[in-house]
Design goal:
Low-confidence stretches: none
CATH architecture: 3-Layer(aba) Sandwich
Number of strands: 6
Oligomer: single chain
Strand order of the largest sheet: 2-3-1-4-5-6
Number of helices: 4
Helix content: 25-40%
Number of domains: 1
CATH class: Alpha Beta
Length: 161
């Protein structure tokens, strides 16, 4: 079985840990607890007749700041960059963040995810997507679970290539 390291990154409070918990454990909590350091877990995803083990690293902090050691990214094959659809501040620097991540992980798969879609209308989602200089791969709701499995299924498919 193929195993791939995947980093979940983005601003504080965008729902990285909630996506992680929804995907791994199928649960959601309204309590906000800041991730300190890194939380690691794995889950096997079936892609056609193959399986891929996703080793998910839920890391704390901002993307490009000193709070996140670049060593966390070593050996990663994919990155899930999460922003909050309800907070423009979390996607204000998205182009800079994505370029930084591409430099850190040349040739890696990067999925750009707008989270908390349960809190906004489809019109608001489209307005956010249209305002960005990078394409959003998928919008999710860690709370309801909408598109969470789809996100990791797509990622697994891309990583198995």
């Amino acid at each position: 079985m193929t195993s791939k390291k995947v980093i979940l990154t983005g601003s504080f409070g965008v729902g990285k840990t909630s996506l992680f918990n929804q995907f791994i454990y199928a649960r959601f909590s309204d309590r906000y607890l800041t991730t300190i350091g890194v939380k690691v877990n794995k889950k096997v995803v079936k892609v056609g007749d193959r399986e891929i083990s996703l080793l998910l690293w839920d890391i704390a902090g901002e993307v490009t700041q000193d709070k996140v050691p670049t060593s966390y990214f070593l050996g990663a094959s994919g990155i899930v960059y999460v922003f909050d659809l309800t907070r423009p501040l979390t996607y204000k620097n998205i182009e800079t963040d994505i370029n930084y991540l591409k430099d850190l992980l040349p040739g890696g798969i990067i999925k750009i995810v707008g989270n908390k879609k349960d809190l906004v209308s489809e019109e608001q989602i489209e307005a956010v997507k249209n305002s960005l200089s990078v394409p959003v791969n998928i919008t999710t709701s860690a709370k309801t679970g909408e598109n969470v499995s789809d996100l990791f299924q797509e990622l697994g498919t891309d990583l198995i290539g």
